C-alpha cells in the first residue's frame, strides 16, 4: 500500500513537472517568427520577391483542405481583429459559413486607415501587397465568398498602385480568378479607392445578429464581412505554420504577433512587428530608441491611435501592449499606434487638435456626435486659450459620456475617449491645474487697468 502511494505520488509529481511553465515575459520577437518580412521595403515587393519570401507557398493545399479546416486553424490561433475592436476572427468568419441562399458572399477589407497616428496597414499595402492578396483568397475561402473588395484610402496613391500591380500579377499567374491556384475555387479581388473621408470600421450587422435583431444588408444586398488589412494578411501564415504556433505568442486571449506604430517624441519613429503583450516601455526603448530626452522626460502616451484615452508615465512603466492589459489601464489597444508625448507637450492643445479632427470628420447623422463633438471642440479650444470656466472641466466629461455609446458608428466613441482620463491619474490633475492657471492668467490680463469693483464682479462671474 505504501509503495502504491509512493508510485501514485511520484506519477502526480512527474505530471506536474512535465507541464510547461506559464509564460511571463513577452518579446522581443525573433526574426524567424516575423510574418511581415518586407515591412521596410528593402526587398522586391512584386510577385517574384514575394515567392522568395514564402508567400503563395502551398496555397492550393490550404484551399483544398476546406472551409472547416481553415476556420479551425484561425480559431485555434486565437487571432482577434487587428483593426481595433478585437473580435475573435475565427468566430466572425464562421458567421458567413452557412448554407447559401443563392446570393453571393463578399469580403470587404478596410484599408482606409484614416485615424491620426496610424500607418501600419500602409506598410503592408506598399511593401507586402501579396500577403494581403493571398490573405483575401484564404479568408474568402473560409467564408465561401465570391470576391474581395479592398476599400483603400484616397490619399494612398502609391499604395493603391502597388496593390493593383500585385493583384494583376496574381491574376496572370493563375493565383486568383477562375480556378484560383488550381483549386477549383473561383475568387476575384477588386480595389476601391475612397475619396479621403475618415471611415470607421463598423460591425453593426454583426452586433445586430448577436442581439437577435434583423441584420443590416451588406454589399449589394448580399452577406458581407468587413475585416482589417492586418487581420486578413496574417491568415496564410497561420494556416501554413499552424494555429498553435500563432497561439504561442502573447498572453492568453491576446495571442499572436502585432504591428505597432511608434511616433511622436521618440528618437526613431518606426513601424515594427512584435509579440503581443510586450511591455510598452520595452517596445519604445528597444525599437524607437527611447523617449526624446530620456524616459524621465515622458509625460504620457496615446497607446492605440487617436481614439484611445492617453495614459500617464506611471502607467506606461508597467502596462502590457495587448487588449486586456490596456483595458485594465482604462484605455485600449485600438490600432496599436503609439503617440508618445514628452514634457514639452501642451497636452491640452494636443487633445483639442484631436477633437477638432473628429468634429471635421463627423458625417452629422447622429445628434450626439454632430452636436456633442462640436460642443467639446469649442470647449477644448477655450481651455487652450484660457477663457473657459472651471465648471467646464467636469462638463466636458459629462458631454463625452453622453456621446459614447449613443451613435451608430464608432466615430462618436473615438471623439469622446481622448478627453476621458481616469480622475485618479496624474494626467487629469495636470489638465485641471493647467486649465485653471490659464483661466486665472487670462482673467488677470483682462482685469489689468480696470475699475476694481467691475474687476471683482467680472472675475466672480467667470469663475462660476
From TrEMBL:
SUPFAM superfamilies per UniProt: Nqo1 FMN-binding domain-like, Nqo1 middle domain-like, Nqo1C-terminal domain-like
NADH-ubiquinone oxidoreductase 51kDa subunit iron-sulphur binding domain mapped to chain residues: 348-393
Biological source species: Monopterus albus
Stated name of the protein: NADH dehydrogenase [ubiquinone] flavoprotein 1, mitochondrial
Assembly information from the UniProt record: Core subunit of respiratory chain NADH dehydrogenase (Complex I) which is composed of 45 different subunits. This is a component of the flavoprotein-sulfur (FP) fragment of the enzyme. Interacts with RAB5IF.
Keywords: 4Fe-4S, Flavoprotein, FMN, Iron, Iron-sulfur, Metal-binding, NAD, Signal, Translocase, Ubiquinone
NCBIfam families in alphabetical order: PRK13596.1 (NF010120)
Catalysed reactions listed for this entry: a ubiquinone + NADH + 5 H(+)(in) = a ubiquinol + NAD(+) + 4 H(+)(out)
Record has Nucleotide-binding as a keyword: no
Keyword Iron-sulfur appears in the UniProt entry: yes
Enzyme Commission identifier(s): 7.1.1.2
